């Protein structure tokens, strides 16, 4: 598979949901999170010079017919083959281009110390999850408070399940025994893939995120010599600059398209 980003996305998907492979595409489903756009999508394998977007929309509606979808999501295995013409065709059909950067590192640079006293530890016991919702629920959540709470409640249960199965490990940052930062990481075939790095909205700009990544990444590298750490960042989101200061470098782009009823 050409895209490391989607390759590692599919690793999680096989543990969390269902991945069906067809000649020209994959179908990724997460039955426990049917409202999760990027847990229920079509990953297109073959890309021609031109593309019939209506054909792919119909394939999506067919594959997810039983879920009564209110969104459409498509990814591409090879971002380099997604031309401006293809982007334009998807946009003409009302889909939004989603571009992310896959960053890689095998030797982390030590960040400046946190501005407040922080304890970093792996989330193992039930009590370690306390405060997880407060870290991930943000005032800028794009949907309503109710849908945001429901989305994150299900994500929390799924993460607990993945940790219990020993597929994923999660680490927290704590100030005065309160969780103020959290992330996940899983290791597979020499790759450590970070998952949902978050800092509590009241504790940002205190260097918590960079130090939590440094703590976690070094733990994985020390336990798995020669491994490669990867993290995916939205192209226009400030977090990628934090990652690059830690030594992460761009190795590929990840491209997708989405539409949802507002």
Protein traits:
Aminopeptidase, 7 helices, alpha+beta, 2 domains, eleven-stranded mixed sheet, 262 residues
Unreliable stretches (pLDDT < 50, length at least 5) are: none
The termini sit apart by 34 Å
Q: In terms of structural class, how would the helical and strand content be classed?
A: alpha+beta
The CATH superfamily of the largest domain is Gcn5-related N-acetyltransferase (GNAT)
CATH architectural arrangement of the largest domain = 3-Layer(aba) Sandwich
- How would you describe the shape? globular
Radius of gyration, taken over Cα atoms and rounded to an integer in Å: 19 Å
CATH topology tier name of the largest domain: Aminopeptidase
Count of DSSP strands? 11
Percent of residues in beta strands: 25-35%
Mean pLDDT: 91
How many structural domains are formed by the residues? 2
Share of helix among residues? 25-40%
**Count of helical stretches:** 7
- Write the H/E string, N to C: HEEEHEHEEHHEEEHEHE
Strand order of the largest sheet: 1-2-3-4-11-5-10-9-8-7-6
> Under the CATH scheme, which class of the largest domain?
Alpha Beta
* Largest sheet report: 11 strands, mixed
What would your notes on this structure say?
The chain is an alpha+beta fold and 262 residues long. It has two domains: 4-100, no CATH class; 107-226, Gcn5-related N-acetyltransferase (GNAT) (Aminopeptidase). The chain is 31% helix and 30% strand. It has seven helices and eleven strands. It has helices at 4-16, 53-63, 84-92, 132-136, 145-164, 208-223, 239-245; strands at 18-21, 25-29, 41-44, 71-76, 96-105, 119-122, 169-175, 178-188, 191-199, 228-234, 249-260. An eleven-stranded mixed sheet has the order 1-2-3-4-11-5-10-9-8-7-6, sandwiched between helices. β3 (41-44), α2 and β4 form a beta-alpha-beta unit. The longest helix is centred in the middle third of the chain and has 20 residues, at 145-164. The radius of gyration is 19 Å and the shape is globular. The chain starts with a helix and ends with a strand. The mean pLDDT is 91.
